[in-house]
Amino acid sequence: MKQNETLLNIPLDKVPADEELGHDHIMTSYDTPVRVDAFEMDDDLKVELIEKHFRHIMEILGLDLTDDSLKGTPGRVAKMYVKEIFSGLNPENKPSVTLFENKYQYNQMLVEKDITVFSNCEHHFVPIYGKAHVAYISSGKVIGLSKLNRIVQYYSKRPQVQERLTVQIANELKEALQTEDVAIVIDAKHMCVQSRGIEDTGSSTVTAYYGGKFEQEATKKEFLSYLSLTS
Ligand SMILES: Nc1nc2c(ncn2[C@@H]2O[C@H](COP(=O)(O)OP(=O)(O)OP(=O)(O)O)[C@@H](O)[C@H]2O)c(=O)[nH]1
Ligand SMILES: [Zn+2]
Hints:
The chain is of the alpha+beta class and about 230 residues long. It folds into two domains: about 5-90, GTP cyclohydrolase I, N-terminal domain (GTP Cyclohydrolase I, Chain A, domain 1), CATH 1.10.286.10; about 95-225, GTP Cyclohydrolase I, domain 2, CATH 3.30.1130. Helices cover about 35% and strands about 20% of the residues. The strands form two sheets. The protein has a five-stranded mixed sheet with strand order 5-2-3-6-7. It has a two-stranded antiparallel sheet with strand order 1-4. The longest helix has 18 residues, at about 45-60. It is elongated, with a radius of gyration of 21 Å. The N and C termini lie far apart (about 45 Å). Zinc ion (ZN) binds near residues 121, 123, 124 and 192.
């Protein structure tokens, strides 16, 4: 199986041709059945296809695509999806991780807290935003600090659910650092809860992962105690 297949790929034989969809067609500027294999496409082709589809959506909504404020929107949205907010779907954008020898014999936990999270909910395609706090205890290697932020950012730039985001960051850190001793807490607001549906602007969602030594109460407590520190 190719990497990310379950995230991205729709098997070609599962995508119905338009004539199989069984409902009336709305004729718009983009009316070609598309059978998509995301792995075969480069970013430019993705942008081109998404632009056409998004124009279709705007036309169905009744928006005036000749308006000078709107006419560039399909292209802007397509570029934003592929190159910015969903760029973490492309494994080529995975950050390279710089590791150093733990020459300083620092054997305590390292906590990188208040990492900004901007993601998007895969159910509604609206933003999730908040903070991630990650920690690890070195098993011999030390990671460049910014790489912790970059790993969080890479997995955030996908259509996500917060639980998966938390586990993906944990798995990446465990593999990069060759240790089970990692912890992640994410505290985030979901616009799909705030601005629509239940419209609750007060709640936030907290997810956590504790591996290895962080499963011990004292270590977990120490990690959590650092989260309330102000620098
Ligand atoms: N577990 C989990 N659920 C999420 C996340 N982001 C959004 N959701 C929820 O996904 C659910 C989707 O449920 P549906 O009932 O299919 O969608 P809906 O009819 O739009 O639901 P409402 O938001 O209640 O109006 C909603 O309850 C969302 O709040 C997430 O990161 N994790
Ligand atoms: Zn949602």
